[in-house]
Amino acid sequence: MKVKEKIIEKILAACALITVLTTVGIILILTIEAVSFFQEVSIIEFLTSTEWTPLFTQKSYGILPLLAGTALTTMIAIAVALPIGLIIAVYLNEYARESVRKVLKPLLEILAVVPTVVYGFFALMIVTPFLKTFIPGLSGFNALSPGIVMGIMIIPFVSSLSEDALSSVPDSLRQASFGMGSTKFQTAFRVMVPAASSGIIVSAILAISRAVGETMIVAIAAGHQPRFTLDPTVPIETITAYIVQISMGDVPHGSTAYQTIFAAGITLFVFTFILNNISYWIKSRYQQKYE
Amino acid sequence: MNSTESSRLKDKAFRYIGMGTTIACVLILAIFIGFILYQGINRLGWDFLMALPSRFADQSGIYTAWIGTLWVLGLTTLISFPLGVGAGIYLEEYGKDTWLNSFLEINIANLAGVPSVIYGLLGLEAFVRIMKMGNSILAGSLTLALLILPIIIVSTRESIRAVPSSIRDASNALGATKWQTIWNQILPASFGGILTGVILALSRAVGETAPLIVVGALAYVPFAPQGPLDEFTVLPIQIFNWVTRPQHEFVINAAAAIIVLLVITFAMNGIAVYLRNRWQSKMNW
Amino acid sequence: MEAESQSPKATNVETKPKLHSDDQEYKLRAENIDVFYDDFQAIKNVSLNIVGNSITAFIGPSGCGKSTFLRLFNRMNDYIDGFSMNGDIYMEGKDIYDPSIKVEELRKTVGMVFQKPNPFPKSIYENVAYGLRIQGISDEDYIEERVVESLKQATLFEEIKDNLDKQATALSGGQQQRLCIARALAVKPSVLLMDEPTSALDPISSGKIEDLVHELKSDYTIVIVTHNMQQAGRVSDNTAFLYMGSLIEYGDTQKIFTNPEKDRTQNYITGRFG
Amino acid sequence: MEAESQSPKATNVETKPKLHSDDQEYKLRAENIDVFYDDFQAIKNVSLNIVGNSITAFIGPSGCGKSTFLRLFNRMNDYIDGFSMNGDIYMEGKDIYDPSIKVEELRKTVGMVFQKPNPFPKSIYENVAYGLRIQGISDEDYIEERVVESLKQATLFEEIKDNLDKQATALSGGQQQRLCIARALAVKPSVLLMDEPTSALDPISSGKIEDLVHELKSDYTIVIVTHNMQQAGRVSDNTAFLYMGSLIEYGDTQKIFTNPEKDRTQNYITGRFG
Amino acid sequence: SCGPSGPSKEIKIDGSSTVYPITEAVAEEYRSEAPNTRVTVGFSGTGGGFKKFLRGETDINDASRAISASETETAKENGIDYVRLSVAFDGLAVVANPENDWVDYLTVEELKKIWRPSSQGKVTHWSDVREEWPDKELHLFGPGVASGTYDYFTEAIVGESGSSRGDFTASEDDNVLVQGVSTDQSALGFFGLAFYEENMDKLKLVPIENENGKKVKPSMKTVSNDTYSPLSRPLFIYVNKEAAKRKPVQDFVNFYLSNAGKLAKQIGYVPMPDSAYQAQKEKFKAFYSQSDTTTAE
Ligand SMILES: Nc1ncnc2c1ncn2[C@@H]1O[C@H](COP(=O)(O)OP(=O)(O)OP(=O)(O)O)[C@@H](O)[C@H]1O
Ligand SMILES: Nc1ncnc2c1ncn2[C@@H]1O[C@H](COP(=O)(O)OP(=O)(O)OP(=O)(O)O)[C@@H](O)[C@H]1O
Ligand SMILES: [Mg+2]
Ligand SMILES: [Mg+2]
Ligand SMILES: O=P([O-])([O-])[O-]
Fold first, then answer.
1. What percentage of chain D carries pLDDT values higher than 70?
2. Whose CA is nearest to atom 1 of ligand 2?
């Protein structure tokens, strides 16, 4: 009996340890390939060169164009998702009647379950042609359209998490504010939003992390041209799109070109890792605050 | 007085802005889906579902893709379900409040935030190359299983936590061992919640594209796979393949395939929500 | 134009609060009030007049409707789903439920302090300044002046004058509650509603608040809900006893506590139920 | 080998429970028990002997440690974070905290019934059969026999005999509690611990449980925690009065209720505090 | 629908995305001919395909250029023997956006100015190519470095195979290039003629001035009579020797050579004369019947 219990516990522990193995696996694989990459390429060049042409005769290994592409699409997405998500969160939490919220909230959350390849289709087939009617110089592949669509996709992250944060603010603060003669608007933006700020910041960081790691939308609609620019109307390439692009061809194992996707991958991993940990840290502090 | 007026005005304006924004988002979703339906619905049909890929758009179908999706889904479930539930049980029931537990917790929170394309790199190196599985269904499924493991673990833990401690006490007081209590009481009582989480996680896996491209699933595979070591394609990859083609007829194919993919995703989510509601109402202790 | 001897209206009771010569003297008047939460009637045909610059205590067992009734005077019930009412409430003769009344304006005149101290998660200074800022006042000198004066009125200034930038949530419970009072005072209301303002506090802090309430009486009309008999006795001029939504007895506090007209009041005050 | 007149140990008290001739007759013995939850001491040096086939009641104000003490006898505190103890507990002379003791075996001998009825979300039949099944018994005939007999013992059988397949959670509260008792009885324990078994029930259901406890006395040693004085008086042979973790008085129920030795006991029993 | 198929009934093909449409078409037609043979076709580009082919992972490699010296080297090391079979001709189309109203033709010299490595970051506007052209940004699109088209183009234009600037949108998937050029007014790109013919309505074909000073557009005619120079070329498939010994592969390759002409034309490539296909068949037959020569033990 005791032995059986012990064995079961060991098996269950092994299941849990798979997650550690996964992390170790990710870090090891990225590091090993990246290390051999950095034996070929100086880390200075990697971090400072503004050209990324690892596959061509004149090789250049500057991650900056890919970072710029990632930053650009992320910024556009956040510029869309953060204000809209916050407005929706405030509206649903402070203004909307219970019955209205019960309908709208799950409808909005559908936005988050649509597969990203479908969003890529939207960006390429609907949003880019639509934007072209306003911006004639817009390239068929550009950062703007996938950025916007990515923003739409992450709206529910921001709105749901922010709404959770808002609704965990004690009602007594709302009452106090109303009692002073505040309107709902004043109450929402002067009392509730500041009081929920840490939760809202967490939602924003998670949204950024999500946008940084998003792949298919940019792989489909942003073009595949590493370009050190913040111009949203021309083709660019993000870190994620580069990994996909190289994976679509067959770059032989062991070549520097193959290692570039791991060098790019570790860069991506480091950024999202930092973002996730910041949000985890804020979250664990903030949860103590109202409990 | 004046300031009250303007405050009230702002208040009113925001009410409309908020409502407008919310509805606009829902409307955008409606437009997107409407566009897809408009483009693709006429292409849907038995032929489209049963046809192999072809260079002629109008003879091309998604047979290999949805068979591949089924294979991947099945295998991913087989791998991730026991692992995720086991890990969830361990974290919730054993070794609580140890440093290992809090380490695992942070680790899982982190894994949940790792971009899916990174999982692709993991799969490419670990499964495709080191374990020599090639661009097989098995390699793809293992990759996706790792990807959704954190989601399953977190939802398993939440479901277990929702089981009232009185049930645990009652079982313990009768002399049940820890595992007997878990197996006979905790798991049956939390099963609805666990299932919900697993289905939601799988619905995410169904739509994943990038990690599968990275492990090499983007080939022209004109035959339905017959075993876990076969090459494969899945719906999202078939869609990606068609979306990138300039010819309008292929775009229509993509739209039609998207309809199928959306139906699968929404159905899974719908089932999950239904199960959750049923479970929650059954579990009002 | 009511006669000098007339008592405030109350369901089926004739009780005698401290009286004044003129209708105008009634700062607040509630007439035939019914309150419903959906189908549940929380207040049953209550009428009651409150004179200016007095302290009125609402007492009664839990759930009898004290808070509900109190919150009618600054329309804080308006937000509650399912709330509806009959009857009228007048403040200085004006119907405060009239559609022409702006509820934000009303609340600037009728301040409120809650059971649990609820300072905003901002600095002490910004808490007190809040009411002024939302009125659109931007004259920093004036705001500072009001903040200091209100904190002094709330007898909090001396304790925290060097820490006005400190987070309000870091204050002790008693200090927080006085801060909430200062916050209410900053916009110069004429009525102050207090819903069990000391129930979350220790006896010493409670004592300070009671003293404060006493001092404020000269400038404000104060209505206070309390479940603490002793406090009601110590602090108020008039007392209203509510029971299951009805006003059982209302009048001079001294009288209610020493010689109530109703047995129910007697029983409640001596602690035999509730 | 103790003398006939010896009283059970208790901190600083000499009280007289119903006595028997031999140490062996003490079904349960607690010696110099301290219990800590982290740094907080919940039980302070309590010793107490319980004779077989008797009903012992633990009484005392909320938080005095009744539940903590009761749960020592089937080691249900073991799971609580921060729990630690000094002293020994013997059952029929065996130290139940000895490492060689299998806690699962112990709990088969010492059954427990909780404050809130907690049937498993299974059928009535399966609830009662659960204890047998986890022992690995698979003889369906034997199981059925035990289920029926236990339900009869718990005076529940007549009411539900046609519905053994019904979900247990669909029973009334009182029925659920009797089901929980039947569930405990099915594995033939010799001790039954009950932690406020009727506090969640209506008076009629409570009465049924009390009657049941009385009947079970001939076969079981029963320890019952209750905050209901009348119940303790009606149901128990001996009563232990705990206060802030200490055992104040322990002895014959009749005596404790009519002529307690300590003022504290007196005050508590007459409702002057607690 | 189909019964269990042994591994020998599987034919793995990868390589040139230019040849891919022909092979795809052949494979598709072959499904009705031999339903139990599973033919999979990838498009990693000629170079990418050779990498797999020379590791023995694929049976047939599509190629839009001949095997290179270093690849031959690898083949020797790995003991891979193969045969090259010609299947069609192709021209490289240089294309611009239909809204581009200034580009009338390009000279080889101008193409070189645009594409050579040293132009990276320097030739960035149309006006940098020819002064009278507008000062619009130049967005370049071309096949990725693993493709034979890229190798061929750089060889023919820049003068060295695989040598070009790196700041252009490179994709092994020609569809992406078509999409890019067709939606971007300042785009310029190149890819196989067939892709132009499939997407004529979305693209503007740019004539190339040949050494005789004639401005020629690629077409069936100009490619087959060699006036569209230097951007026309033959297309090949390479068959592994081990694979060629298997009956299904022999059948498939013969089917390929019998139908390539017809299908190539359908898709927009330039077929070879029938006699040429016949010659290739014989070459293939001789190849798989002969005893091993190169494979060392
Ligand atoms: N939002 C609400 N919805 C429905 N019923 C309510 C609501 N608020 C109060 N009630 C009910 O109205 C009655 C009066 O409530 P109220 O809060 O005014 O009582 P109270 O005298 O202030 O009690 P306490 O001393 O506990 O604060 C109670 O029965 C309460 O349950
Ligand atoms: N898990 C725990 N962790 C920390 N302290 C605890 C825990 N359980 C009980 N305590 C504390 O130990 C003391 C005794 O608790 P116990 O539950 O035994 O009291 P009780 O007499 O049963 O009270 P009640 O009548 O309310 O059930 C209390 O002060 C309680 O706060
Ligand atoms: Mg109240
Ligand atoms: Mg207890
Ligand atoms: O794909 P390619 O034909 O250019 O090698």
1. 89
2. D80
Residue nearest to atom 14 of ligand 1 (CA): C65
CA-CA distance, C36 to C81, in Å (whole number)? 11
**Could you confirm whether domain A63-287 is CATH 1.10.3720.10?**
yes
Helix (H, G, I), strand (E, B) or coil at A66: helix
pLDDT of residue C24: 53
Model confidence at D128: pLDDT above 80: yes
Mutate to test the interface with E, among A141, A144, A244 (most CBs of E within 10 A): A141
A33–B125 CB contact, under 8 Å: yes
pTM for the predicted model, two decimal places: 0.85
Domain boundaries, chain B: 3-43, 46-281
Is residue D1 predicted with pLDDT exceeding 80?
A: no
Q: What's the pLDDT at A205? A: 94
Under CATH, which number does the domain C26-95+102-270 receive? 3.40.50.300
Residue D22, token pair as written in the block: 């031999």
Residue D272 has pLDDT above 90, yes or no: no
- With a Cβ cut-off of 6 Å, ligand 5 is lined by E 16-19, 45-46, 64, 143, 147-150
Question: Considering only A180-189, B176-185, C20-29, C48-57, which range has the smallest mean pLDDT?
Answer: C20-29
Condensed to tens digits (0 to 9), the pLDDT of residues D186-206 reads 999 999 999 999 887 788 888
Question: Chain E residues with CB inside 8 Å of B223's CB?
Answer: 2, 38, 40
pLDDT-derived band at B255 (thresholds 50, 70, 90) equals very high
* Protein residues within 5 Å, CB atom, of ion ligand 4: D 67
Q: What is the pLDDT of residue E52?
A: 86
Alpha-carbon distance of B30 to D94, in angstroms, equals: 73
**B7–C contact, CB cutoff 8 A:** yes
**How far does the CA of residue B12 sit from the closest CA of chain C (Å)?**
14
Report d(CA C46, CA C86) in Å as an integer: 10
How many angstroms separate the first and last alpha carbons of chain E?
42
Cα–Cα distance, A214 to B207 (Å, whole number): 13
Assign domain B46-281 to a CATH class. Answer: mainly alpha
Q: How far from each other are the two terminal CA atoms of chain D, in whole angstroms? A: 39
Q: Which segments in chain A show pLDDT lower than 70?
A: 1, 249-252, 287-291
| Whether B116 and A25 lie within 8 Å, measured CB to CB | no
| Placement of tokens 């086939």 in the chain | D53
Residues 148-177 in A contacting C (C-alpha not used; CB under 8 Å) = 170, 172-173, 175-177
Chain B residues whose beta carbon lies within 8 Å of the beta carbon of residue D71: none
Which of C135, C143, C187 is the best residue to mutate to test the B interface, defined by the most B CB atoms within 10 Å of its own CB?
A: C135
**A264: amino acid identity, one letter:** A
The domain segmentation of chain A, as residue ranges, is 3-40, 63-287
The 10s digit of each residue's pLDDT in C166-192 is 999 889 988 999 999 999 999 999 999
The vertex-E112 CA angle with E108 and E113, nearest 5°, equals 120
Contact B21 A29 (CB under 8 A): no
Domain spans of chain C, in order of start: 26-95+102-270
